[in-house]
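Homework-ish question, so no full write-ups if that breaks the rules, but can someone show me the predicted structure for this set?
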Amino acid sequence: EVRLVESGGGLVRPGGSLRLSCAASGFNINTYSMSWFRQAPGKGLEWVSSITTGSSYTYYTDSVKGRFTISRDNAKNSLYLHLNSLRAEDTAVFYCARGSGGGTTTCFRLWGQGTSVTVSS
Amino acid sequence: DIQMTQFPSTLSASVGDRVTFTCRASQFISTWLAWYQQKPGKAPKLLIYKASSLESGVPSRFSGSGTGTEFTLTISSLQPDDIATYYCQQYDSFLLTFGGGTKVEIK
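A: Not a homework solution, just the prediction itself:
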């Protein structure tokens, strides 16, 4: 079965860090761009970050630049998002998703189930 | 960044109704637009890509149209299973953006 499974979410204090993981199965991620999205409670979808197939290019929404880092390990068929200097406004469900090909300007057919991040003291 | 505006924010209709909602881009995006359906607690599901192409497995009552800056998603005959929030997403720019969503309710 083709799927994405996120993990690593949890409760963290403001200023803290987390590493989210996204494990792919049923396909090889090395031919796809990958992205992270988030959805704050009761709010809409927000793109967070994307990474190209060979990690040559990474892109971030302005509000997370310098705090979040996207990475991938094609050998482990996994995507990661390192979250640093977390703020209350980062509280959200984080989703990973597979692009339609190698480019990051894409729509998304395959999504994970999401992992919840809560930033609170 | 390209801003995406959806309206209405909420739509109430009866089963069997034809419903249409709109997504407007702040600049020209050709047909680089997707529509997603999201139900509470679930991940988004791709319905339409490239403005008007129906994703495999999606019921034919869903259709998309538009080009440039103005786009529409139409459900030809609303079904109870269509209760969800619908989002548009532009992918003309690598800074991907979504509209704020249209929540569909059954009257």
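Now go work out the reasoning yourself. Hint: The radius of gyration of chain A is 13 Å.
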